[in-house]
Structure formats: C-alpha cells, structure tokens
C-alpha cells in the first residue's frame, strides 16, 4: 500500500483517478506498517482504479442542504 494525497481533478467509471499536487508518504524499511515521515512530491498523476483501495477527504466533511429537495417539502 502506498498512501498518496492530492487534489482530485477527475475520475471515470473504473475509478481511475487524476490527482494534482500529489504527495506520496514513504514507509519505514524495517516496518512497512509505519510511515517514516518522509514524503515524495509526485505532481500530476493518474492512479489506476484497480489499485485504489480508499478515497476519503483529508479535511473532514461538511453537511450541506440537499439541493434536490423542493422548498417546503
């Protein structure tokens, strides 16, 4: 697993992702479950959908009003 963060610029039905300003977080050599704190700047990348395990916001989520509900419903 290679944790990567970035700005989602696009995706398709196969979950191929286009990420801008992507950063990869490197893991420890002796313990691959721990992050080393080192990062690698990747820039603009395409992640193949078959390799994507999780997509989530890094800053949390906000609840917004449903724009599809009619007024007074």
From TrEMBL:
Database matches in InterPro entries: Lsm7, Lsm7/SmG-like, LSM_dom_sf, Sm, Sm_dom_euk/arc
Superkingdom assignment: Eukaryota
Chief localisation class: nucleus
Keywords: mRNA processing, mRNA splicing, Nucleus, Ribonucleoprotein, RNA-binding, Spliceosome
Keyword Nucleus among UniProt keywords: yes
Location(s) in or outside the cell: Nucleus
Annotated ranges, domain Sm: 1-61
CDD domains: LSm7
Single Gene Ontology BP annotation: nuclear-transcribed mRNA catabolic process
GO cellular component terms attached to this protein's record: catalytic step 2 spliceosome; Lsm1-7-Pat1 complex; spliceosomal tri-snRNP complex; U12-type spliceosomal complex; U2-type prespliceosome; U6 snRNP
Molecular function terms, GO-annotated: RNA binding
Keyword Nucleus: yes
UniProt similarity note: Belongs to the snRNP Sm proteins family.
Protein's name in the database: Sm domain-containing protein
Species the sequence originates in: Miscanthus lutarioriparius
